[in-house]
Amino acid sequence: MESIVIPITLFGMILGIVAVSVWGSVQSKKEANETVRRAIDAGQPLDSAAISAIGKPVRSAAQDLRGGIVLVSLATGLIFAGLMAAGALPGIGKGWDDDAGMGFFIAAAIVGAIGVGQLVAALVRGNEKKGA
Fold it and tell me: Which domain holds residue 126?
């Protein structure tokens, strides 16, 4: 019984996070649609710029850059934690388990890849602003 609680909790947590995210997105769209409906009922003209301004805000290049730096830094920390767990750093860590170190490395690869993606997005958005 105890061996099944942790996997169920893990997948339940993931499901809960996804459900809350979807619910929040739906509520945000409902509010935006309600705002557009009220504006139309009041007789205000709405162009595409006004409608897009009501919707989801666009992330700036600075936000992407900040997020990318944080995620790449987190990945670096996970790499060092993995090295400590594997006992690869002399004088630091006791070499708990090679599998634990590999887990840290896998997490670091995922987080680092997302961080690099955000850094690239910041670079692309920065170039779009310069070109426009």
Answer: 58-132
Q: What pLDDT sits at residue 13?
A: 93
| Cβ within 8 Å of residue 46, ≥6 positions away | 36, 39, 40
Residues in the chain: 132
Q: What is the mean pLDDT of residues 6-30?
A: 90
Total structural domains in the chain?
Answer: 2
Q: How many CA atoms lie within 13 A of 68 on its CB side?
A: 16
If asked whether residues 85 and 118 sit together in one domain, one would say yes
Q: 98-115, pLDDT tens digit by residue? A: 677 788 899 999 999 999
* Phi and psi torsions of 88, nearest 5°: -85, -15
Nearest to 62 by CA among 103, 11, 12, 121: 121
Residues 51 and 98 in one domain: no
